[in-house]
Amino acid sequence: MTQHYTVLIIGGGAAGVATANNMRRQNASINIALVEPSEKHYYQPGFTIVGGGAYTLKETLRNEADLINPSVTWIKDYAESFQPEANSVTLRSGTTLTYDYLVVCPGLQLDWDKVEGLKDTIGKNQVCSNYSPDTVEYTWECIQNTKSGTALFTQPPMPIKCAGAPQKIMYLAADRFRKHGLAEKISVEFLNAGPGMFGVPFFAKALTQVAIDYGVKTHFNHNLIAVDGPNKIATFLVTDSDGKQEKIDRAFDMLHVTPPQSAPEFIKRSPLANAAGWVDVNDRTLQHNRYSNIFGLGDATSTPNAKTAAAVRKQVPVVVDNILNLINQSAVQEGYDGYGSCPLTTSLNTVMLAEFSYGGKVTPSFPLLDPRRNRAIWWWGKTTGFPWLYWHIMLKGYRIDIPHLESYAKSFLDK
């Protein structure tokens, strides 16, 4: 069986749903289909505060059916392979879909198996992770259960979803330990496979100070490679300044793991992937570098931006407008500058709102406010404002520009 669509979208996460709904708002008659097997849709930025005990998993969840414009055809199946020369996609069911334009945005996958023993122990033995809806609630349980000893928080090699998330949960845990008089009894440690606190130097220095204020011990070039859950031993591959590597074992009483991540396997083995396995697109137009009627956005693409929902918000109009340009026989336009945002939870009531674009350029939506400051208003944004914008503005396909809100934020802070 073969079905044809003008625009075919692979992936029904933030990128796919927002693209479909935005496209529909720009053109009421275009034939759009979206391929997504899951009937559940999670607001993944909320997982940080679920693990920190300030949000429930239920609050991050909606039914996929309630998010997709009813005029968009929703195909509940898995994409299996791409045949770009024939403008077709084969689904796991065997159905073939053909298209005029293809949008690829399936997100990325969590590679639990790349850390020996992790898959067997995650969700028990005080080994937790905020990165999956299946494990995030156990993070909060682990934090509550930790009364003394060593709490380790890991970060794997890049790229990963939201590079600040591994330390966000660490600060929420450290703040709770402090508030419950446990700070002197628990050693909180951050072990990052990378060379520093954060990839943008402007924010790295401020985050280093946050860690110092909590007494967090930081270890860089430490990559988690194995976990022995029953014996509570984590093994790291440590690289020194000369490139020499050695394995070290660390005992823990709590271990929060950020798993290695990569593009989905069906993307890696497809003709759409670059050598590293990501959907190979132009980082400004988001058009595929070899197939002009294919576009990619979100976490699965080759663009070197932070993989965040905020990046998707900026990418969606670029993809939609460029497809409409091609339909109208106009040229594609460069429109994406690498924008990403990371609301860094630095305590149970403050957030540092980090915004930046390609090259680590700092791009605050509210330039009159020092973005390195930990502010309560951004905690409100993290727990209330940003989720509302996600569900009611971004996913519904509306286009918004935040800077005009700066005067309201400043007036709120001045009161």
Structure write-up:
The protein is an alpha/beta fold and 415 residues long. It has three domains: 2-109 and 262-327, 3-Layer(bba) Sandwich (FAD/NAD(P)-binding domain); 110-261, 3-Layer(bba) Sandwich (FAD/NAD(P)-binding domain), CATH 3.50.50.60; 340-414, no CATH class. Helices cover 27% and strands 26% of the residues. It contains ten helices and 22 strands. Strands 1, 2, 5, 6, 7, 8 and 19 form a seven-stranded mixed sheet that branches. A five-stranded parallel sheet has the order 10-17-11-12-13. The protein has a three-stranded antiparallel sheet with strand order 14-15-16, with no helix packed on it. Strand 7 and strand 8 form a beta hairpin. The longest helix has 19 residues, at 309-327.
Summarize the structure.
This protein is an alpha/beta fold. It is 27% helix and 26% strand.
Helices and strands, with pairings:
Layout: E1 2-10, H1 14-26, E2 32-35, E3 40-42, H2 47-51, E4 61-63, E5 73-75, E6 79-83, E7 88-91, E8 96-104, E9 109-110, H3 118-121, E10 127-128, H4 136-145, E11 149-155, H5 165-179, E12 186-192, H6 201-214, E13 217-220, E14 222-228, E15 233-239, E16 245-251, E17 254-256, E18 261-262, H7 265-268, E19 294-296, H8 309-327, E20 340-345, E21 351-357, E22 361-362, H9 376-394, H10 406-414
Parallel strand pairs: 1-2, 1-8, 2-5, 8-19, 10-17, 11-12, 11-17, 12-13
Antiparallel strand pairs: 3-4, 6-7, 7-8, 9-18, 14-15, 15-16, 20-21, 21-22
Helix pairs in contact: 1-8
